[in-house]
Amino acid sequence: MRTNRLEAFSDGVIAIIITIMVLEIKVPHGEGIETLLPLIPVVLSYILSFVYLGIYWNNHHHMLHATQKVTGAILWANLHLLFWLSLVPFATGWMGENHFASAPSALYGAVLLMSAIAYWILQQLIIASQGPDSILKKAVGGDWKGKLSPVLYAVAIPLAFWRHWISMSLYVVVALIWLIPDRRIENALRSSDT
Amino acid sequence: MRTNRLEAFSDGVIAIIITIMVLEIKVPHGEGIETLLPLIPVVLSYILSFVYLGIYWNNHHHMLHATQKVTGAILWANLHLLFWLSLVPFATGWMGENHFASAPSALYGAVLLMSAIAYWILQQLIIASQGPDSILKKAVGGDWKGKLSPVLYAVAIPLAFWRHWISMSLYVVVALIWLIPDRRIENALRSSDT
Amino acid sequence: MRTNRLEAFSDGVIAIIITIMVLEIKVPHGEGIETLLPLIPVVLSYILSFVYLGIYWNNHHHMLHATQKVTGAILWANLHLLFWLSLVPFATGWMGENHFASAPSALYGAVLLMSAIAYWILQQLIIASQGPDSILKKAVGGDWKGKLSPVLYAVAIPLAFWRHWISMSLYVVVALIWLIPDRRIENALRSSDT
Amino acid sequence: MRTNRLEAFSDGVIAIIITIMVLEIKVPHGEGIETLLPLIPVVLSYILSFVYLGIYWNNHHHMLHATQKVTGAILWANLHLLFWLSLVPFATGWMGENHFASAPSALYGAVLLMSAIAYWILQQLIIASQGPDSILKKAVGGDWKGKLSPVLYAVAIPLAFWRHWISMSLYVVVALIWLIPDRRIENALRSSDT
After folding, report:
1. CB spacing of A15 vs B16 below 8 angstroms
2. Cβ contacts of residue B21 below 8 Å, gap of 6+?
3. Radius of gyration (C-alpha) of chain C in whole angstroms
4. What residues of A are in contact with residue D50 (Cβ under 8 Å)?
5. At D58, is the pLDDT very low, low, confident or very high (cuts 50, 70, 90)?
6. What phi-psi label fits residue A150: left (phi over 0), alpha (psi between -120 and 50 degrees) or beta?
7. How many angstroms separate the first and last alpha carbons of chain C?
8. What share of chain D in percent tops pLDDT 90?
9. B1 touches chain A (CB under 8 A)
10. What is the spatial distance between Cα A97 and Cα B136, in angstroms, rounded to a whole number?
11. CB contact under 8 A, D103 and C31
């Protein structure tokens, strides 16, 4: 399997996930502007998840760009990642409809945690398939973002049952950490060219 | 990141937005032709939004065609545009179900305004990335359409609370202004070839 | 605009239309096999529309394959076709839920008629853009299928109010006429190669 | 028609099927963690179907990779396969909502059976189009997986009315058989290169 097929399929699935998520913002039945008020937490959740899926799309693209061949294990690790990402709209909808209540906020963190683990597994399999001179390994480097994020999610999940705004803040913080585009892989690719 | 990846992802998202919008036209429960009557404003809103998304798809394509490299800032400006476009089905559904009432018509204008601003930001970032000899800058030229549209939206939003048919007319007028395919970029590309 | 962009976007929209149509087959609330019985007309409508969209996808592909350049008019004629096709899920759902009643069957025919007209307009614009030696014109030839189909739809629409099974039969007949893959364009392309 | 068009369209449809399936996991109205309990069978069904669609996507890709030309018959056999796959979300939703009751489990097996038959027809048509030296024929070889799967489905369907957990186990067994990535075609392609 060529990398671009896997990329096109993943892009398609992420594009659909990001778009059907908007279906959770149900059209209100009244016509007054005050009927929009109950939608504010739903829209805020949507924005957060939109940013997360944008980050995944972006980093996933960079990662596959540094991948030459796709093994069976990589293919299934990729589907495993898409599986967890496909649960984001559900977790987002539940969290938004319940105004960031404890259990929904914890579930949201759990889906993010599993997605991060799935991403990490995929990354390790690609690095393993590339052997000792792995471009991706060099590109990822210390990978402090990839190591810190699951820790923050794991902290945020139990905290959601104590003070749910703390876990929400942690999800926003992780998003901000990643929002800075990941130039590591681009740099490694560039230096491997020269 | 290559331009064609960004284009394929954006096309995918716009194709999904344009298609799920039709889900707002709910199948009526009766079998008589009169059960379609309440759907007329819903269908009219759908047509307007379909045309707007067609215009965005078309112009977005031309813009990316005049873009060589994609920076991190361009990538996020593009996701920002897709975010606002993804709210079009919601605004369309709310406006259609409430027969173009004031608040829904104003929200529709607000989503169009934010999309226009997001498009403008994306355009400026691409021009900035191309330096002084920017093909896109030459192509866009005076950009009177791009400057007039947000002004008309901004006028239409408060007017929706006074006479909502005026704001609806303004949305139609802006669509008609853009419906004439944008040959500016094509011309600039052609002249830069010769 | 290159033809392949238009093709990819159209393919994406048709793929989404064909797939969201299945959402009209609502999961029944009982667990007995008899709860599936009311779904039979819904599934039959789905099959018919699936075949129609398959035919459009196939012929549209062949047509664009014989197209070299995409003008603004062709682009909008293509969006016009996609607009009518996007209404197929609605018409299908209404017809299926009401067991092929008169008004829904007539509306279904109207959507098919408008799609056929939109397809014809697109075809004429491509032929016109190719000038006197148009490959597509040669390929389409007498185009008896393209001429007969709208006539049969136009006959079927009023008949739906008299005997709705006659119009249903006509829709099935037109589908069968087209189901035979359109080798005309392929042949013309082949002979233009030699 | 080139193979890659057929592949892109099929990928698009499968990506949409796999993603809209998640819409069957309805957001619960309560905010307590116990409101998730009734969703467990829905999520389990979703996982099973996700794996099945992943298997189809993977094998379908390998099959088309060993296909050079697409005839009209192949095109329609492919649409026929996509038709049955498009019913997977419905069968999954019905089975999950009714906690793997008899009739829904039988229907699920029937959809899997018809998909397997549709896949087999497509495979035979491609082999036939390739003539006596068919790469795909060599790659598929004895095809014990392809022969065993429909038999297991056919056994599972009636068993669903006696002990539905037996048929569920059979569906899981078939998925596990296929989950091992299909290296047969890859091997045949490799040996035909050397």
Report:
1. yes
2. B46, B49, B50, B53, B88, B89, B92, B93
3. 18
4. 79, 83, 86
5. confident
6. alpha
7. 28
8. 55
9. yes
10. 43
11. yes
Measure the CA angle with vertex B69, ends B175 and A145; round to 5°: 105
Q: B22 to chain A, minimum CA–CA distance in Å?
A: 12
Chain B residues lying within 8 Å of A33, measured CB to CB: 103, 106-107
pLDDT for B15 equals 93
Please write the tens of the pLDDT for every residue from A11-62: 999 999 999 899 889 999 888 889 999 899 999 999 999 999 999 998 898 8
**8 Å CB contact between C107 and C94:** yes
pLDDT given for residue B184 in this prediction: 61
Residue D38 has pLDDT above 70, yes or no: yes
Task: Provide DSSP, D129-145.
Answer: HH-TT-HHHHHHTT-HH
pLDDT higher than 90, residue C88: yes
Q: Does C1 touch chain B (CB under 8 A)?
A: yes
What is the token pair recorded at D132? Answer: 């006596």
Angle at A101 between CA A98 and CA A103, to 5 degrees: 110
**pLDDT band at residue D158 using 50, 70 and 90 as cut-offs:** very high
Which parts of chain A sit beneath pLDDT 70? 1, 180-194
CA distance C194 to B76: 49
**How far does CA A124 lie from the centroid of its chain?**
17
More confident: B23 or A190: B23
The structure tokens listed for D125 are: 């048509």
CB B170 within 8 A of CB B107: no
C-alpha dist (Å) from residue C126 to A15, A189, C4, C123, C131: 31, 44, 15, 5, 9
For B64-73, the pLDDT digits (tens) are 888 888 888 8
Interface test with D, best of C27, C33, C53, C182 (most D CBs within 10 A): C27
Q: Are D136 and D130 within 8 A, CB to CB?
A: yes
The predicted model gives C135-155 an average pLDDT of 84
Using left for φ > 0, alpha for ψ between -120 and 50, and beta otherwise, residue C47 falls in alpha
C16–B11 C-beta distance less than 8 A: no
Quick one: angle between helices A40-65 and A3-20, nearest 10? Answer: 180
Q: Which residues of B touch A27 (CB under 8 A)?
A: 24, 90, 93-94, 97
Q: Is A62 within 8 Å of A143 (Cβ atoms)?
A: no
Chain B residue closest in CA terms to C101:
B31
- pLDDT confidence bin for D1, thresholds 50/70/90: low
Determine the pLDDT at residue B191: 67
| CA atoms of D103 and C34, how far apart (whole Å) | 9
CA gap A54, D126 in Å, rounded: 39
Write out pLDDT tens, residues C69-78. Answer: 888 889 899 9
CA distance linking residue C47 with residue C114, whole number of Å: 20
